[in-house]
Amino acid sequence: MTGRRSFWGWGTTDAALDPSEQERIAGTVGELFGIPTPTADPPPRLEDLDLRESRISAPAALADLMTADRFERASHTYGKSFRDIVRGLAAEFPHPPDLVALPRDADDVARILDWCSDSAVAAIPYGGGSSVVGGVEPLVGDAYAGTVSLDLRRLGRVLEVDGESRAARIQAGVYGPALEDQLRPHDLTLRHYPQSFEFSTLGGWIATRGGGHYATLHTHIDDFVENITAVTPRGLFETRRVPGSGAGPSPDRLMIGSEGALGVITEAWMRVMDRPRFRARASVRFTDFTAGAAAARALAQSGLHPTNCRLLDATEAAIARR
Ligand SMILES: Cc1cc2nc3c(=O)[nH]c(=O)nc-3n(C[C@H](O)[C@H](O)[C@H](O)COP(=O)(O)OP(=O)(O)OC[C@H]3O[C@@H](n4cnc5c(N)ncnc54)[C@H](O)[C@@H]3O)c2cc1C
């Protein structure tokens, strides 16, 4: 990623749509809905936002880990659902986090959580902010003195690779592309590709029980987790790293899909695999959607497990072609 992340929408500012692209998309929308070609609203400007003052300040001991910077607070106000983008585009930012925390390691996370607990401040883990269910939105009611968005982006490294067992110990704040970049020299891949891959993190995938696009066999992040380390308000949570276990309820599964409610995932041992050496793809056109669905079902039930098989309806195919 080269440009700065947009504080209200998807992607980076340098990849924003130019006027001719906007015009083309407006034309498509007009055609699809049978309405006059709509005009695009101008994007909001940071300097015009009516952002309320922070209600809390960082204690001296944590001052170098926390910021009340306008851009950071605005960027951490919403996830990336359609509703979030619409509110961002309308410059509605009534509940920004009071502070954004940028821990460098698990110890920092523990210190930040301790302070939040002692100060009645709500801490909300933040990975890539691509949540579509309000998971990162600091709307917590009046019981708290304030809110801290706890952004894990500095925990972005692959710490260890166990080539023999094909596993890697990976920090939770790593974004998809940076994770694959670090595994590539080992000829390994996690091969977990949610559509939000570019702007989401390992910790977010685990916390949301994310699913990837390579989806006819292993798709959920659960399949790749060997162990999880998390910092909770009650101390460290660490599961045993074993290749497989049938011993009772899985503590990993407690954390997987917990949406940050139980603690902050700081790292995990993940099962990785050799990078694929061959690739082939094909597109097939069907006379109608039902025929396509029958073919997709037959393929899914064949046991052949192609990496990906995706059925597009006529409208989606028309949009994808533009
Ligand atoms: C365009 C788009 C495409 C998408 N495609 C897919 C898809 O193909 N598959 C899919 O499963 N989802 C998809 N999503 C949803 C979203 O990307 C996933 O839920 C993703 O796993 C979130 O990761 P994140 O790092 O952005 O987490 P965030 O959005 O930052 O956080 C999500 C939740 O996890 C918590 N959290 C984040 N990091 C941690 C941590 N380290 N420890 C504890 N809790 C944490 C947060 O508090 C929040 O509740 C898509 C979203 C968009 C906008």
Task: Give the strand order, joined by hyphens, for the main sheet.
Answer: 5-6-10-8-9
Q: Give the rounded overall mean pLDDT.
A: 94
- Percent of sequence in beta strands: 15-25%
The structural class is alpha+beta
What overall form do the CA principal axes indicate?
globular
Let me know the number of strands: 11
Name of the CATH homologous superfamily of the largest domain: Uridine Diphospho-n-acetylenolpyruvylglucosamine Reductase, domain 2
Small ligands present: flavin-adenine dinucleotide
Number of domains: 3
The low-confidence runs, each spanning 5 or more residues with pLDDT under 50, are: none
- How many angstroms does the end-to-end distance come to? 24 Å
CATH architectural grouping of the largest domain? 2-Layer Sandwich
CATH class categorisation of the largest domain? Alpha Beta
**Could you state the order of secondary-structure elements as H and E?**
HEHHEHEEEEHEHEEHEEHH
Helix content: 25-40%
Q: Helix segment count?
A: 9
The biggest beta sheet reads: 5 strands, antiparallel
Radius of gyration: 22 Å
Task: Predict the CATH topology of the largest domain.
Answer: Uridine Diphospho-n-acetylenolpyruvylglucosamine Reductase, domain 2
